[in-house]
Amino acid sequence: MHLWVMAGEKLLLLYIRFVFSIRNHATPMSYLESSRCKLYYEDTADSDPSGREKPVVLFVNGWAVSSRYWKPLVNILSAEYRCITYDQSGTGKTIIQSYKPTFTIQGFTDEAGALIEYLGLQRSRELHIVGHSMGGMVATELCIRYREALLSATIIACGIFEENAFTSLGLMFLGGLIDFSMHFRNIFLHEPLKSLFIKRAASKEIPKEYHDIIIEDFTQSDKEATNAVGKFSIDPEALRAYTRHVITIASPVLCCVGMADNTIPPEGTISLYERRHTESSAPTRLAKFNDLGHLPMLEATAEFACELKKHFEFAEQFYKKRAPENTGNK
Q1: Which residues share a beta bridge with 51?
Q2: Domain range for 143
Q3: Cβ neighbours for 11, distance < 8 A, ≥ 6 positions apart
Q4: Which residues are CB-contacts of 143 (< 8 A; sequence separation ≥ 6)?
Q5: pLDDT value at position 282?
Q6: pTM above 0.85, yes or no
Q7: Residue 162 has pLDDT above 90, yes or no
Q8: What is the CATH number of the domain that holds 154?
Q9: Is the dihedral of CA 144, 110, 298, 236 positive or negative?
């Protein structure tokens, strides 16, 4: 009987240790309240205090999606970087009820800026900013606003296009498609449209759980916010400002593009890279993924993480080399 009691105690102890290990590795859920929303965010340094000594990566989401799709990438990068994700107003767990946020590039930049300042990320040059799709436009504004804290910028699948009659017609058609999608978005909850939606976003197979996450995020996002974001991301004046601002980023910029992207034509990101490479004296790099689509962070997570780490390391070395020059000029 005594042996059974001892065995039971050991099993109980192992169970308790297991539960605590899960808690220690889980990323705590946090909120930041402001005048526009109650912003949901996750910071890997909350579960791993050593992360506060690491360089920081802030991820800015694309259209009508929560921050959950960054998780596989964060799991790889968090060993070397403090990773911060958040749900923009109108998506995920961020609360906008009883608030009145403006769904503009400026408004989304303000809410991300409030998070940067709340976490004290603006105080030293340790910040890498990664923006995906529409999030590339917001990320660019953050890079300009926090230029003294910025180590590097990464823009994924957020390009520019030559202004002509054909492009204008294409943008008008896309605007109509956004309206249609928002009015009938629940049809994508069912097959075969659910699979078609995912295949348009990703050219390679992604984990099954992210099929459900992407569809859930799209169909449950705030309709006003999602419609506004879709419209300003194709507004000609907004695109002109975006182009000008990308060129003025003084830190190294990486433009990433999946050449099999069926959501946003990949040529636009290549055009953005070429324009900045020609007009900016700051380093500009291009990462092309020939067989990937609009979601490289899910389609080839390890390969994509490798490209990001190379860019981050390049940017860190870029500023280390400049440090003696700056010291000499003082």
Answers
A1: none
A2: 37-325
A3: none
A4: 129, 150, 153, 245, 249, 251
A5: 97
A6: yes
A7: no
A8: 3.40.50.1820
A9: negative
